[in-house]
Amino acid sequence: NINLGEHPLRIVQAGIQNHVESSVELVLDLDYCCDATTTCNVRWRSANSKTENSESTVSGEDVIVTLSGLKLKGRMHLMLKPTLPCFPFAGAVTMHFLDQPQISFELEYSQDISERYLLKNILTRALDDTIAQLLVTPNNIYSKLSDQVDFFDTYALPTGFMHYQCLSGSFMEAHEKKYQGEAHVEKPDIYVTTTVGATVSRTPTCLNTTQPIWDFSDLAGFVLYDTRQSCQIKVYDESAEDDVLLGETVVPCGSLGGSQESPLRCKGVLWGDIAVRAELFKLSANPSLLEQHISYAYWKRQAVLVILVDSASGLCCTSTHINVTL
Q: Considering the entire predicted model, what is its pTM?
């Protein structure tokens, strides 16, 4: 549990957009700085901790970690849909981030540990995943304001679909890698992650190469709720201790199309280019239009089926899985 303090969320900039019929969309640039601290106990096992007579690692040690200075910056979208002529003026409000908000914080430790960067990376990923599961598209916080409108009229359907494929990488250099505390200059074991909203796609790992090439069968699909969503591409070197970020780039989904080279913005470890292929399709509720895309057999997915669960009853309390048969 994280103490969020008493300082309110600050709205840096606000705007109104109308991209969906019978709706109003508020765009809020948020800047939050937490004034409280959070303390937690972490059982930490060092990668170099070995027993004297065996290769098994020790059980670990308890470290008290204090998290402070939590900051969050991002662009939140509030969708009021459908609009009504009288109070409350909208049937429902939906809140979400189109892209993952930026998170930063400081850590203090009760004792010295060698892999501080690794522990901070783990906590950062945990916070990112938690926010993504709650508030990053397609996930959202939904609140119905009026019982006079149908639930399905309040839901904003996706507007498009992006077929995406990572093809190859080039001009990548060997770099220093650490294994069991010792440094070695080796070619990287490269894989690429692509993130759109809360959806993440990962390529297979190409071992010991500076010129990775991925199979044409490794296709990814992203449901788009807005062409303003960003496509974040990150290149990693897979490691037994902790994967190293080699470079990254962010491009708007609306700018992708066809085969193109996306330059990576590197952080002093590696430089190079990643070749990607992407195709954008506009979604329509007209089934007859599906026949026009079936002939384009390069991509495997041709349509998106959206199922909205309005209500349920008689569910088993001991099970968290629901099977839907079509």
A: 0.76
